[in-house]
Specification:
Helix content is about 30%, strand content about 25%. By secondary structure, it is α+β, with helices and mostly antiparallel strands. It has one domain. A 6-stranded antiparallel beta sheet has the order 4-5-1-6-7-8. Strand 4 and strand 5 form a beta hairpin. The longest helix is centred in the first third of the chain and has 15 residues.
């Protein structure tokens, strides 16, 4: 049985800069060199920790991720693809609050393989290029849905400025908690019958 991880991100950013990012071309994963920081074990000549991938295997992984990113005409299409991974409409969300300047988006049933995780983080960390001095963000891959082991797979901090970096292992559980209340509300029985929260296409 497939048990995909959830993937969510939150950006504190002015609406105008958010729209610029959504309408911009995607940034390729090969523009960063820190992908081993994602951590975890994956199928690669058997199951290997990413820290044990050869340089050739890592290069092939990044090339496949770039190919996935090139499918998107712009960042908005990439974010739409993340949302489309949800196994039901109430299991995804995209919303912007003008009061807090927070854009929150993601899917409770995103993926369970390394290429998709890299595509997710590459899309999100491209936002930092558009950040103002007070903008920042967080992105997380976390199990909010399956079994009792609700652990954080990985997390990324964005900002201040154009910086982005994976969070250390001793920090990532708090990152998963940043979306816990929202995730639990999305999984409640009432959520199946509530209006879908999807403002992505209205952000123009």
């Amino acid at each position: 049985m497939s048990e995909p991880e959830s993937a969510f991100f939150k950006l504190r950013i002015d609406r105008g800069r958010l729209v610029q990012w959504l309408d911009a071309p995607v940034m390729l994963a090969s523009q960063w060199t820190d992908w081993r920081g994602i951590g975890g074990r994956y199928y690669n000549h058997g199951v290997q920790d990413i820290s044990d991938f050869s340089e050739a295997d890592m290069a092939q992984t990044i090339a496949k991720s770039d190919a996935g990113l090139r499918r998107f005409r712009d960042t908005r299409a990439g974010v739409r693809d993340i949302l489309s991974s949800a196994e039901a409409p109430h299991l995804m969300r995209a919303s912007y609050s003008a009061d807090s300047r927070d854009f929150v988006a993601g899917s409770l049933t995103y993926a369970e393989n390394l290429i998709d995780y890299i595509v997710f983080y590459a899309l999100v960390r491209g936002a930092a290029k558009f950040f103002g001095p007070d903008d920042y963000g967080i992105a997380v891959v976390h199990n909010y849905v399956w079994g009792s082991d609700r652990t954080t797979h990985s997390a990324m901090r964005l900002g201040p400025g154009s910086r982005s970096a994976f969070m250390a292992a001793n920090e990532i559980q708090s990152a998963g908690g940043a979306f816990l209340e929202m995730a639990e509300a999305m999984m409640s029985p009432d959520a199946r019958h509530a209006a879908v929260i999807d403002e992505l296409d209205s952000l123009r």
